Amino acid sequence: MKRNYEALIVIDLKGKEDSVDTLVNNIGKDFEKAGVKLEQIDQLGKRDFPYSPRHVTAGYFVKYHLNAEASALDSARAKLSLNDSVYQQYYQRA
Q1: Does residue 69 belong to any structural domain of this protein?
Q2: How many domains does the chain contain in total?
Q3: Residue 15 pLDDT grade (very low, low, confident, very high; cuts 50, 70, 90)
Q4: What integer pLDDT is reported at residue 63 of this predicted model?
Q5: In terms of residue numbers, what domain contains 58?
């Protein structure tokens, strides 16, 4: 059964040569390869962290509105955990 989800992805821009739009599109392609349908992408911008975990002071926040089955979302989550551009990822049902 397909459901609507929201994914908040924090991208680590430190040391990356690609533009933000390229990184956001690559993550969207990873979602689509896993069988997840992208409804909308909201780029929330760069924000500083209140403390520096793992020597990262800021991240670029992007919210993806998704429509997927739970198994497809799990495979996308596993694939994105291997992506070195993705700093953190949070998912919730919409």
Answers
A1: no
A2: 1
A3: confident
A4: 98
A5: 3-64+75-93
